[in-house]
Amino acid sequence: MKIKAYKITLREIYEDDLEMLRNWRNMPEIRFNMIDQHEISIEQQKRWFINLTAPNQGHYVVEYKNQAIGYANYKLNENRIWGETSLYIGEQKYCGTILAFCLALALLDYVFLQLKVQHMKADVLTHNTAAIRFNEQLGYVYIDKSDDLIKMKLSIKDYLNAKNKLTKIIRV
Known about the structure:
- The chain is of the alpha+beta class and 172 residues long.
- It has helices at 18-25, 28-31, 42-50, 99-114, 129-137, 156-170; strands at 3-5, 8-11, 57-64, 67-76, 82-89, 119-125, 141-145, 149-155.
- The chain has a single domain, classed as 3-Layer(aba) Sandwich (Aminopeptidase), CATH 3.40.630.
- An 8-stranded mixed beta sheet has the order 1-2-3-4-5-6-8-7, sandwiched between helices.
- The protein starts with a strand and ends with a helix.
């Protein structure tokens, strides 16, 4: 299955993508902002790939202009009331660009509008100020904060309000 929206495509992950995804995930600047910061081995990546078909989740290679540039996923609880997403841009020339918002909008549109999830949540390390600001611009609000972790949630209403503002910026 492919998701095409906001100038990007989310496509299924193929075995040939594994080393590219592993290399991106192991980049220090990406790993530093992950809750699990250990390096991923080739064997761990292969085991992860085998389990990608678990129900209530989707994993994607992100493409822009037919070039793989990143990774995105969603995971939903059993009754689809709550879900969470994660994403990263691995191609350095696209880091810090509007494409991260294009990716997030495509994924959140799919989760909220197609899968009918009611709320999304996000756990963000407190030092990851870029992700905190990013999530706030998507409509996420704080629900809890500790010394090292901020918990946020996103309702469909808050998402649609934020989406309306963001789509004017990205002109889609």
